[in-house]
Design brief:
The chain is of the alpha/beta class and 303 residues long. It has 13 helices and 9 strands. Helix 1 packs across helix 13 and helix 7 packs parallel to helix 8. The chain binds phosphoric acid mono(formamide)ester and norvaline.
Length: 303
């Protein structure tokens, strides 16, 4: 594995290796020890969009592993390809640094960077997928539910980048996935077909959130308005009525179902404050696991 661009690009074995490494590194750092395998190495972090968790966890992870990270914020780089082509940037970075992490609008931008550089490239979110998030989510589910095989994850909301990587992750780790979205906001058929080609009948789409949560061990949601869709915000608020993960919806779910959200969360919209703060919410464990997964990915690809 040279780079980490999307869950469906990886083999099941590779993903299990990253997950196991993340668990090992989590235990190591919790015990106060360190792994300095990236001493002297530099990661360039390219952000076309805002970030809290991804930026901080990658920066801390690089520092933890003995290396360093450069943060190139949206104001510094603008949209990759506008000032200069991604293929030129990739070949310049190639000569300065040891790895690239990029958060972009177009997924193709990350693919293009990877094509033109010899160093590892990590997808830190594109409009199409958010694979680092999905890996942290899988680790969180394993920690709270045990064996992943046969678990059902109900994703309530927009069929977006987060939903797509979760569908692929469920396929790879033996879980089933259902996406419940309003009409017009479903996960595309191609993505569902990709997931189902990896594991037969593992992924489905519905317009009924109640049906989706009925027998789910994990209930997941994300913002109704992703970065780049700000102009559609009011329309989306109208269209997503009935798709909030709130007390009314959870009355139909198993009482001990775990509640997940990749954050940032918009309380009162896709999730209620009460559900977010409830004892079944594991959202901050998810956020923590971003750090452990980033360490694992960096060691796996750059170590
Ligand atoms: N979940 C996530 O990727 O958060 P940030 O956008 O803050 O990085
Ligand atoms: N779907 C959201 C995820 C943010 C972490 C977005 O793309 O903005």
């Amino acid at each position: 594995m040279k780079s980490f661009l999307a869950i469906n690009d990886c083999t099941t074995d590779e993903l299990h290796e990253v997950l196991d490494l993340s668990c090992q590194l989590k235990a190591l750092y919790k015990s106060g020890r360190r792994d300095t395998c990236l001493e002297g190495k530099v990661l360039a972090m390219l952000f076309e969009k805002a970030s809290l968790r991804t930026r901080v966890s990658f920066q801390v992870a690089m520092t933890d592993l003995g290396g360093s990270a450069l943060y190139l914020k949206p104001e510094d780089i603008g949209i990759i390809g506008e000032r200069e082509p991604a293929k030129d940037m990739a070949r310049v970075f190639d000569r300065y640094i040891d790895g690239i992490m990029a958060r972009t609008y177009k997924h193709e931008t990350i693919v293009e960077l990877d094509k033109w550089t010899g160093v590892p490239v990590i997808n830190a979110l594109s409009d199409w997928t958010h694979p680092c998030q999905a890996m942290a989510d899988v680790q969180t589910i394993q920690e709270h539910c045990g064996d992943l095989k046969g678990l059902k994850l109900a994703y309530i909301g927009d069929g977006n980048n987060v939903a797509r990587s979760l569908a692929f992750a469920c396929a790879k780790f033996g879980m089933t996935f259902v996406c419940a979205s309003p009409k017009g906001y479903e996960l595309d058929d191609e993505s569902l077909n990709t997931a189902n080609a990896m594991a037969a009948d593992c992924a489905a789409q519905t317009n009924d959130p109640v049906e989706a949560v009925t027998d789910a061990q994990v209930i997941y949601t994300d913002t109704w308005t992703s970065m780049g869709q700000e102009e559609e915000k009011q329309q989306r608020i109208n269209d997503f009525q009935g798709f909030a993960v709130d007390e009314t919806l959870l009355a139909n779910a198993p009482a001990n179902a775990k509640i997940m959200h990749c954050l940032p969360a918009y309380r009162g919209y896709e999730i209620s404050d009460g559900v977010m703060e409830s004892e079944h919410s594991v959202v901050f464990n998810q956020a923590e696991n971003r750090l452990h997964v980033q360490r694992a990915l960096l060691k796996y690809l750059m170590g």
